[in-house]
Every structure is written in structure tokens, then in C-alpha cells.
Amino acid sequence: MFTRIDHVGIACHDLEEKIAFYTSTFGLTVAARETQPGQGVHEAMLHVADAPAGSSYVQLLQPIHDDTAVGRFLARHGEGIHHVGYGVDDVEAALGILAASGVRLIDDRPRHGSMGASIAFLHPKAVGGVLTELVQAP
Ligand code: CMX
Ligand code: CO
What we know:
2,3-Dihydroxybiphenyl 1,2-Dioxygenase, domain 1, binds carboxymethyldethia coenzyme *A
């Protein structure tokens, strides 16, 4: 079902500070910067590597305000890994298979994600405490 790890989502208080850290310390490059009001985040995708199945990224996430998914996460857990995003060829097909096998979905249909991707989330309580995202690249 999964073609690669597309990205690891990391929650932070200060996007500029974390971009500076990841670019200067690890030599990553900023592939995209977006504000996604529907997800409640200011974000940056930092390119890590290319592979035959597609590229992989670190997704840095700063909440637009406290009453958002990432805002609540920061209040509870502090900064750190927020979710894992896996590449899939067909997000709707993957959701159908997972729903049929009883996995609790957050999204029963895809929504718009970073860099034009089609995405959907699985509930962390269904995945051993790991918020899990399916990513179909455009
Ligand atoms: N990882 C693991 N567990 C998480 C979690 C996360 N990222 N976020 C919340 N939880 C857990 C909480 O710890 C809590 O557990 P307990 O009940 O055991 O204490 C439970 O989920 C509910 O917590 P909450 O504060 O009430 O959480 P929310 O109301 O924010 O709902 C969730 C949680 C996962 C349904 C919500 O965050 C969501 O819909 N996320 C998907 C969208 C998203 O995260 N968008 C930002 C990223 C965008 C992108 O990647 O492009
Ligand atoms: Co993500």
C-alpha cells in the first residue's frame, strides 16, 4: 500500500527558527512554504532526498492559532514529531481498503495537502498512537 515515507510532520512554535535550524544544521533545502487555513498551519516542506518512488521531506508545522490540531498538540506534548506521511499511488483506493479492514479514519475522503498533494489522515488511536497521513503526489 505504501510507496515510501513522504514526510515526517514536526510541530513547532517558531517556523522561521526551525527552518533556519534544519537548513543550516542538516543542509536541507526549502521546497515549499504555504499557509493552509483548512489545516490551521503555517508550514514549510524541506527536501531530504529523492528516490525512485518520489521525494521525501520534513514538514515543519506552526499553528495559525492555539485552537487547531497542531496548536492543541503543542499545548499537550510540546514540540516534536506530530505525524508520519506515507506515499500512496491512490489515496481514495487506500482509504477504501483501510476502512474495509476497520481502521478508524479521520478523513473518509481526500483533501488538499502541501504542494498540490491529495491527503487523508488515519486516527492516531487506530495506529498505536501515531497520527498517520496518506499522501498522493500530484
Ligand atoms: N499524535 C498522536 N496522538 C495525538 C495527536 C498526534 N498528532 N494529536 C492528538 N492526539 C491524541 C491526544 O493525545 C489525545 O489522546 P488522549 O485522549 O489519550 O489524551 C487524543 O488524540 C485527542 O486529543 P485532542 O487534543 O482532543 O485532539 P484533537 O481535537 O486535535 O484531535 C486529531 C486529534 C488527530 C483527530 C486531530 O489532530 C486531527 O484531525 N488531525 C488531522 C489534521 C492535522 O493534523 N492537520 C495538521 C497537519 C497538516 C498536514 O500534514 O498537511
Ligand atoms: Co503532513
